Amino acid sequence: MKKTSLQTSKSWKCSVCGYIHTGDEPPEECPQCSSSKKEYSELSERQKLRYDGKKFDVLLINGSSHRGHNTGILTDLAEEALKKRGVSYKRFNLNELDIHHCWCCYSMRDSACTYPCRNQLDDAPSLHEMIIDSRAVIVASPINWNNMSARLKDFLDRLTCLQNLYLLDKKGLTTGKLVGILINGHEDGGMKTAMDIFLYFQQMGYILAPFGIAYRTHGARYNSKTDTGFFNNDEMLKKDVEGVVANVVETMKQGLEIKLTDKIVPVSE
Fold first, then answer.
1. Is the N or the C terminus of the chain less surrounded, counting Cβ atoms within 10 Å?
2. Are 218 and 147 members of one domain?
3. pTM of the full predicted structure?
4. Is residue 192 part of a domain?
5. Does residue 200 share a domain with residue 76?
């Protein structure tokens, strides 16, 4: 008996633009945003992110709009390096999460920006808890017009409630933690993007691991569709990402977060 399309078809959602495709398989290319089929997941009722409360070492963030594209390669390499070292971690691709724009409560009055965040409607509060419980953060971002992705900026903006603890003369919850930063892009802006990201973490008392930034660009002379092949096969990129992970992990072993307790003077804006 031949199955009807009603019996066999599934619904698939693009995590980049939200387009919904009906069929047995996702499309090879999203008809709305041109993303690859890697960005599609079978449509299901989404559950709000919950943190199980188990402490871990590294929070690994893919800050790209594409979980399975070029920045995903950096994140995959970092994840492999963490596994090899036996380091506990949690990985998140931001385009799979629900993170609202910051409400900018601080602009109303200093004390309106609180921790826990006043916006408990999305996934950011669980990420806040994980940032507090982890010892280090490794962030991967593409270069979008000489800056980070909009998704990543929304996530970093939502950390204001943690940074504001210092301004309210409360005990900081992130002083002495470590950050490593991984950047990739088609052309210029690698170091600027990395430093823009670092400034957020610096204002929360994070320490950049020695040689804690790696960036790699392909070049404007090439068609951007060739970038993925380049990043997948670039040995320097692999070596640099593994180096950043190693530097974060080895510095983490020094226990600076404990050693610096009550010795750091917060100077935060």
1. N
2. yes
3. 0.90
4. yes
5. yes
